Amino acid sequence: MSTPLDIDQLQTFVAIADAGSFTKAAERVFKTQSAVSMQMRRLEERIRKPLFVKDGRGNRLTPEGEKLLNYARRMIRLNNEAVAAFDDNRLEGTLRIGTPDDYADRYMPEIIQRFARSHPNVELYIECEPSVALAEKMARGELDIALVTHNPLERESEVVRTEPLCWVTSANHPLPDNAPVPLALGRRDCQWRRLACASLDSIGREYQILFTSWSSTVVAAAVLAGMAVSVLPESALRTGMKVLGQPDGFRRSRRCRSAS
Prior knowledge:
Layout: H1 7-19, H2 22-29, H3 33-47, E1 52-55, E2 58-61, H4 63-85, E3 93-99, H5 101-118, E4 122-128, H6 131-139, E5 145-146, E6 148-149, E7 159-170, E8 181-185, H7 191-202, E9 207-212, H8 216-224, E10 230-233, E11 241-244, E12 254-259
Helix pairs in contact: 1-2, 1-3, 1-4, 2-3
């Protein structure tokens, strides 16, 4: 009788396929990169076929890897359904989640996918608003959990991720010389907006706020169109954006903390 495939290895395999690299997948499955590499070596030994090939800085599936991916997704789904069927403490009802739209764009697809598989009887209600508004709704009991920008001066929260907060502009449009920096930022109570303005004030650099919106989609559109500079967390950077630094006259980026 052949040895069964390992579900944990298959979950890591799917994470690599979805993320495009071992490094990003390691963050998703909460393992070290060396542990992820070891799991894939063992899985390849079990399949007796190569599953990945290097593609620049990332990894792409071989034809054998593509073939396994479909089976892996089905096996993981069936495994989760089987476990849930015998779980007397399985969750039911509605879970109310709040998150700003920039975090929703980056993190929610993975969260929704994992949660739906683990708790198929729970309805997810997801609300996208700025962190300040979400914190107020949490205080009123209108949300069960929220992923927000950490601000210890205003609220208690548990940090789940720390990343650089970057100055960004369009990679295809040069900044105007000898002119105030055109900015696209969140609303007046946005923590990133306050940090951006304070940073420019501290070096005496003139600026003009041209676009104000709590929607990261709107802010990103203004940046990509070459109309403005903004501050975004590293995870929100998009193709077509350029990170600005000291050679461009901007101070080194601060750290941004996501919290729940």
